[in-house]
Amino acid sequence: MTENLDTDDDLDLAPATPTRRTSKLAIVGAGAVGSTMAYAALMRGAARSVALFDINTAKVEAEVLDLGHGIQFMPMAEIVGSDDISVCADADVVVFTAGAKQKPGQTRLDLAGATISLVSKVLPSVVQVAPNATYVMVTNPVDVVTYAALKISGLPSNQLFGSGTVLDSSRLRYLIAQRTGVAVQNVHAYVAGEHGDSELPLWSSASIGGVPLLEWGGIGVRGPLTSEVRDEIAHEVVESAYRIIAGKGATNYAIALAGSRIIEAILKDEDRVLPVSSLLNDYHGISDVCLSVPTLVGRRGVTDQLEVPMSVDELAGMRKSADAVRAVARQFGY
């Protein structure tokens, strides 16, 4: 005899599988830097989900299509994009790349007015849909823009910071490696201060394979890093962006890789030491300005700023850099 079953009472239905929360990166601006940042983050597997926002509908949709068509060749990820700010909702990290485009001959500080105006229009809307995200400002002049963005957004200083001199420090290490013939991975040196003309290499704390850089005697036929050689390297670090912009119109590959490294440090909670631009409070006597110094970066954003020992000249350079950035910020009411 067949027993009748009341399906509502007797069937043991399996519970719905919960949606797994994945890391989300939102990038504001689908220009050369923003789209390349998305590409670099996807290729490195820095985030499981990447969202692009731009007011140029055709541009952002085209970038997402182009990136999406290559997803099968990348670590597991998804890419979405829109001209609607809601695409950034619930992001873990927001990278802000939108800003005025730097033209040949322009300094980064020349861009301040137009970029701050854009940030003031867009950033509050992004914070509204992603209030818990860590914000990384990548648009120039990054130190002035980061300071203004903190005031505009009202976010705490650990939650919003700039990409700073992470790229400049990479350029410095590359040039030192080229001069010495040592792998760039064995060069440890930072550029501090403004991401711009007043930035300075911290020679006194730099090292090559554990050897203090100022004591480097050279290996093989390569000579020591004399003060003249160091000055040439420092000049090249500052000028390299201008050379790239003059030749191809924008810098995008290296800054995208530098940015994706910052993103990884946040999402993986690495407490990685990176020379990002954050608000200083009595750092070697310097306060109320955003500048780059070696800083711990992790899930909480920026935490401790390392008070790296500096020479008298380096301290003077940091103060000069602070004055330059602070003066521009004050011009725009920040």
Automatic annotation (TrEMBL):
NAD(+) binds at residues 33, 54, 59, 99-100, 138-140, 163. Substrate binds at residues 102, 108, 140-143, 168-171, 251. Residues 24-162 form the Lactate/malate dehydrogenase N-terminal domain. The active site is at residue 195. Catalyzes the conversion of lactate to pyruvate. The modification Phosphotyrosine is found at residue 242. NCBIfam families: L-LDH-NAD (TIGR01771). This is L-lactate dehydrogenase. Residues 165-327 form the Lactate/malate dehydrogenase C-terminal domain. Keywords: Allosteric enzyme, Cytoplasm, NAD, Oxidoreductase, Phosphoprotein. The keyword DNA repair does not apply. HAMAP family: Lactate_dehydrog. It comes from the Bacteria. Allosterically activated by fructose 1,6-bisphosphate (FBP). Pfam families: Ldh_1_C, Ldh_1_N. Its EC number is 1.1.1.27.
